[in-house]
Amino acid sequence: MSDGNAAGTAAEGGNAGEDAGERVFAHRGCAGQYPENTVAAVRQAAPHVDAVEVDVRRCASGELVVLHDPDVSRVTDGIGSVAEMRYADLRGLEVLDSGEPVPRLSDLLAAAPDDLLVNVELKTAGLADAALRAADRAANPVLFSSFSTTALREVRETDPDARLAVLCSSDPDAALRTARAVDAEAVHPSLRLCTGTGVIAAAREEGLAVNGWTVETAADAETLRAAGVDGLITDRWDVV
User: Fold this and answer.
1) Of 8, 59, 118, 154, which residue is the least packed, with the fewest Cβ within 10 Å?
2) Are 231 and 23 in contact (CB under 8 A)?
3) What is the CATH number of the domain that holds 155?
4) Is residue 228 part of a domain?
């Protein structure tokens, strides 16, 4: 496995989580506090966390855009599939009545503080080349995560040194097999898996860091701390 550790190197300087020992990841830029997956969310969350997690998919004109859903209707004032919309149209949409536009990955990376780890979740396969080019142009350390084994394999085949994490909401054994196959440094299991399975102990035996998701309350944070995670992936920095 990689010598890197997502808990130990989440940010070069380190901000939150120092007292408790766990690193704090702002899920979608702390979606419980700020307009998710926007430049404003990253800027506002950054002083309080060690890393920011964002979701990336490709739009019809080829750009990588930062949106969780395949459709824009939940988080913007528009309607339609991201894959069928050009960025010229996407950038005119407003995210959650915030005045913030849908950003490109390159815009978001450029806005992030240089020492802030950006965890880029690849929502589909076929994004590796463009995502790695954006990461190469950024000053930030970048960790790529995905539920898709294919997406992670594509990143590893393109860049032997890329930092990878495997997301899982079920079948932790499969996630650990994927982590071995792609030489990941971390697994990101759901809160339920962290507390209801042996994934944390098994990951430690593999030399993997474990960052649990998603923290919505102080009770969630304490549950994951008690389970022994290395990182907390949270919707709110003020509950950790």
Assistant:
1) 8
2) yes
3) 3.20.20.190
4) yes
